[in-house]
Design a protein that fits this description.
2 copies of one chain form a homodimer.
Chain A lengths: L5 E5 L6 E6 L3 H19 L3 H17 L1 H12 L3 H24 L6 E3 L12 E7 L3 E4 L13 H9 L3 E5 L4 H17 L7 E5 L3 H9 L5 E5 L2 H13 L6 E4 L6 E3 L1 H6 L1 H13 L11 E5 L2 H15 L4 E2 L3 H15 L5 E4 L10 E2 L2 E6 H6 L11 E7 L4 H5 L5 E7 L5 H11 L3 E6 L38 E7 L19
Helix pairs in contact in A: 1-7, 2-4, 2-6, 3-4, 3-6, 4-5, 10-11
Chain lengths: 499, 499
């Protein structure tokens, strides 16, 4: 056996160390997946009402542990207590939302097509049900220690669907992950939920991630993280002897397009809103609007000046860990070195500033932006690119983007023709379009789509947020000519349903 | 340029040759995909009612060309005119079913979550719509020249979804493919549908298939065919710089499980039904029940005798092409060579019998069946394996199967506990369960699932048949805080919908 690795809770602000956790071994992966297989079988046949009770109890347990969780999450991430409070609220809301959703039965996707013995040939009774896919591996990111963490949206939707989950916790916040897993285990045990329904593997080791994706009894993967790691694990998932669905959310540039009229009419509001959206959470949101198209001309010039003024009031902020600081500096250096790119910075950028990031805007032309691939990779931090172009060329520019999680338009009523042209293009490029708003601060509701074409995600048909996220972990089974007494409870009813 | 390949319509019965068609070149692939991209953009914004009209006109055009199509399909496939008539009926029905379905608007998956300005933070209005994914490549199989052909379920559902399609026609029936494409083009042109909405590439060349899956402007693939070719093309689809969904239906063993009571009570009916299901269409259905579990003991013995008697009345049948004859003989030879396998044949098997196949049953034990992988590969033809085992061991045996399109149980009311145990296992293994029936002769209704875990398909969340098949070609987009006037028509309505 390889020597055990220890993962230590560390404050990015101070470098102070807290609790230490054993890193998962390959044996731990096998054990978690084995327990998951047994738990999946039992959980899949647990009525939705009882599954909902476990989700709600987990939500209550998180709420009860709020003081500890928020303190530890803030210590490990540097995101600040208010943000950790809000994120815990969202995590609790998500668990309760999926609990309520499965109680309605809508997740089961029941369709009943009655038979017709008089048809030629006679048509048998057919009833369709969505059932859980089996154990799901969940890979959590660094930037949402709670809402995409051990009990975040992926785990909550998989558990609601009737799947066991094996979570690979991010090494940037091991103690937060541990607290969430403990809250779940206590709540679930009290309600008699199966052992192994949720396992936490603490690890930052690529071979452990790979072993989890390769495990025979893992039936789907939900991943939130970088394009590089996401594609690597996607490749593992689809290269298995039995390929499995890989739901990867890999980040995005989230372009904003601003009309000349909007720039003129709402200069300060847009400048303030945009810079707040770029710098919120130290710019470490997958929905951060990393590029903004500002029209050439006086109104656009004034908007860029206003953005610059907004930026100047902001000091350096703390990133989640030192690795991200290093990556961001490398990205910023690559962007700076492109001819035709100039920089507006909140303060003089400090080389070697550790986990601190200085909010920064780059300004360039559309020609330079599309000619340089370096400019079109995500800056994971409070850094964005302003692209100056004629508004009339923005629909054409929009068509040059690949898959995005979001795209945003700022426009006035007189711009409707232009807005419609942009919408028509952006629908084909993004999972969510926003009008006169900002992509960060995603609302978790039934109609939410958090997804999009590759490389925003590896599964363009699905959403990672909102009630529809549960569909990722359900597969259809049809029952032909079964008598009621032998049908699953959801199907044992005679009236036709579904179209 | 490579020299043009010619694909000749050939009768498997007589070897007689008919019309010849130019095989597609790589330039043809590029051209079809280029036309498809333009057509997809226009078609995606064509209202569902107008799309429905084109699908109905195509159905009518097929019906008008019925005499020619049935004659040519029968000539090229040897399936017989009644089967070709029935398959054309199903093809027409499918086109009309998707036309009616999109007129209901249900395919658009609209969800409206109203905003709440009083919430903290304020919640924006969110509206979700499913939109077409873009051009779809369709690979048609040899065994369903019409229902899974150029205007079969994959093309019909993709067109209904709002996607252009590029069909790679199977070289075993080029003239049938050509007639179907012509019927569509005339009907579509008369209604002003975009050029390039459906293109037919005639080819049997692996590099042409690969080029189509690799084409940048192809956004999804629907494939019906063998596990070998399906996996090869799946690997191409997921290895692209931008991976795309690959909906492969790769065939299945479709196990049947028979209780002792059912064997006793319905011996002759089951023997007749089973042998008819195995030999129908010369056993070339993806739903052919290629393995049947018959209980040991007197009732099972008598059932096997009755199956044997049913078989003896049947002569050799014609396969779709000589390549399939060769493959089947190789498979049969491999099965025959396994120790512990005995054979019941309708007639003395003729080595080198060309396109003719002799209906044949093999008999073995469950131990032998599961110990030899050669026995668990599909026999594509009128050949099946009888596995003798104790009924009480059948649930355990069922758990040893990998993904299947279907699984069937024959049981009496007194068997309910046994049946429930089998259902619980088989739900996790198959896309459709059948009670006291046979898997062939699939009903095309809303509740149909034609799918299942790998290797039955490469996309376990989806069905290739029935109205839900359209979901494969739709992806969600959410509109946040858009005024009604800027929303797609489907969303421009204020009332909340969806849960």
């Amino acid at each position: 056996m390889a020597p055990a690795v220890t993962i230590v809770s560390t404050s990015p602000r101070t470098g102070e160390q807290g609790a230490a956790f054993d890193g998962a071994s390959r044996e731990d992966v096998s054990h978690a997946v084995l327990l998951g297989a047994a738990a999946s079988d039992s959980w899949a046949h647990t009525p939705p009402g009882r599954r909902a009770a476990v989700l709600r109890a987990a939500a209550d347990a998180l709420n009860s542990a709020r003081l500890d969780i928020v303190r530890v999450a803030d210590f490990e991430t540097g995101l600040g207590e208010p943000r950790c409070q809000a994120e815990l609220d969202r995590t609790i809301l998500q668990l309760r939302m999926f609990a309520s959703f499965i109680e309605t039965g809508a997740h089961a996707g029941v369709i009943v097509s009655p038979g017709d013995p008089a048809a030629s040939p006679p048509r048998p009774d057919m009833r369709r049900l969505l059932i859980p896919i089996g154990t799901v591996a969940v890979f959590t990111p660094s930037n949402f220690p709670l809402a995409y963490g051990v009990l975040g949206g992926d785990a909550a939707s998989a558990l609601a669907a009737g799947c066991a989950v094996v979570v690979k916790g991010h090494p940037s916040h091991p103690h937060t992950s541990d607290l969430c897993a403990r809250a779940f285990h206590e709540a679930a045990a009290a309600l008699g939920a199966p052992v192994g329904l949720l396992s936490l593997l603490q690890s930052g080791a690529p071979d452990i991630s790979r072993a989890l994706v390769e495990a025979d009894d893992v039936h789907a993967v939900a991943f939130t993280g970088s394009q590089r790691v996401g594609r690597l694990l996607f490749d593992v998932a689809v290269s298995r002897p039995r390929p499995i669905p890989f739901y990867g959310e890999l980040g995005s540039l989230n372009p904003l397009f601003i009309s000349e009229r909007a720039a003129g009419a709402r200069r300060d509001a847009i400048a303030g809103g945009y810079i707040a959206s770029v710098t919120g959470g130290s710019g470490q949101f997958c929905t951060k609007p990393g590029v903004v198209f500002v029209p050439v001309g006086a109104a656009g010039d004034a908007l860029v000046d206003a953005m610059s003024a907004q930026l100047s009031g902001r000091g350096p902020s703390v990133l989640l860990n030192a690795g991200l600081g290093e990556s961001l500096r490398a990205r910023v250096a690559a962007t700076s070195s492109v001819a035709g790119v100039s920089s507006i910075s909140a303060a003089a950028p400090l080389p070697g500033e550790g986990v601190h990031a200085v909010p920064q805007l780059f300004v360039t032309s559309d020609a330079t932006f599309f000619a340089n691939e370096a400019l079109r990779a995500e800056h994971f931090g409070p850094v964005a690119i302003v692209v100056r172009t004629e508004a009339s060329k923005m629909p054409e520019a929009a068509a040059r983007f690949d898959g995005q999680l979001t795209a945003t338009i700022h426009a006035e009523p007189e711009d409707d023709a232009w807005t419609r042209a942009l919408v028509r293009v952006l629908m084909t490029r993004a999972g969510r379009l926003i009008f006169n708003g900002y992509p960060t601060g995603l609302a978790v509701v039934a109609a939410t789509t958090h997804g999009g074409p590759y490389p925003a995600t590896t599964a363009p048909l699905h959403s990672a947020v909102g009630t529809t996220a549960i569909r990722r972990f359900l597969r259809p089974v049809s029952f032909q000519a079964f008598p009621d007494r032998l049908l699953p409870a959801e199907l044992a009813s005679p009236e036709p349903r579904g179209a």
